[in-house]
């Protein structure tokens, strides 16, 4: 999965303004954090997959229900579309990115291992290597939360799992553990873990302390 998507030279460029990627499972508060930070620091909130491919994603949902490999490929490719757009935005603004390569890779690896009743590849495995032709963020913030609190938050949002991944995530604790471990095995630095069990304001303050080092 971490192989080059395109036959091109590495595109990682020196960014005028940083890309701050926020990662974590649904319910950890990553979207809230990314949005709040974008407002506090006059940055741009950006979601992967980007809005210009959401229509394609929605039209392919019936296909994704029965073809998990196609779904994974779509999300992996959407990171490249997001990267291209972010490089332009970073010329003028800080980008606060709601999910990126870590999520695509972690979900893809973990679901495959669960389906095949296998353990995750070891931490040194090349599958965790960041693609040479994908723009790296400046820093990744990973939000962690107890499963009890995560489910409570999802319930309070009155949201039900709708995608195959979300339904399986709710059902299998092993899958959740695999995804979190995969996040941490991606060969990328710096990745900073934050306990998301506090209030949104407290989590934002913790994130600000981290981000200040890169502004």
TrEMBL record:
<keyword id="KW-0067">ATP-binding</keyword>
<dbReference type="GO" id="GO:0004798">
    <property type="term" value="F:dTMP kinase activity"/>
</dbReference>
<dbReference type="Pfam" id="PF02223">
    <property type="entry name" value="Thymidylate_kin"/>
</dbReference>
<dbReference type="GO" id="GO:0005524">
    <property type="term" value="F:ATP binding"/>
</dbReference>
<dbReference type="GO" id="GO:0004550">
    <property type="term" value="F:nucleoside diphosphate kinase activity"/>
</dbReference>
<feature type="domain" description="Thymidylate kinase-like">
    <location>
        <begin position="22"/>
        <end position="206"/>
    </location>
</feature>
<comment type="similarity">
    <text>Belongs to the thymidylate kinase family.</text>
</comment>
<dbReference type="GO" id="GO:0006235">
    <property type="term" value="P:dTTP biosynthetic process"/>
</dbReference>
<dbReference type="InterPro" id="IPR039430">
    <property type="entry name" value="Thymidylate_kin-like_dom"/>
</dbReference>
<dbReference type="GO" id="GO:0005739">
    <property type="term" value="C:mitochondrion"/>
</dbReference>
<protein>
    <submittedName>
        <fullName>DgyrCDS3208</fullName>
    </submittedName>
</protein>
<dbReference type="InterPro" id="IPR027417">
    <property type="entry name" value="P-loop_NTPase"/>
</dbReference>
<dbReference type="GO" id="GO:0006233">
    <property type="term" value="P:dTDP biosynthetic process"/>
</dbReference>
<keyword id="KW-0547">Nucleotide-binding</keyword>
<dbReference type="GO" id="GO:0006227">
    <property type="term" value="P:dUDP biosynthetic process"/>
</dbReference>
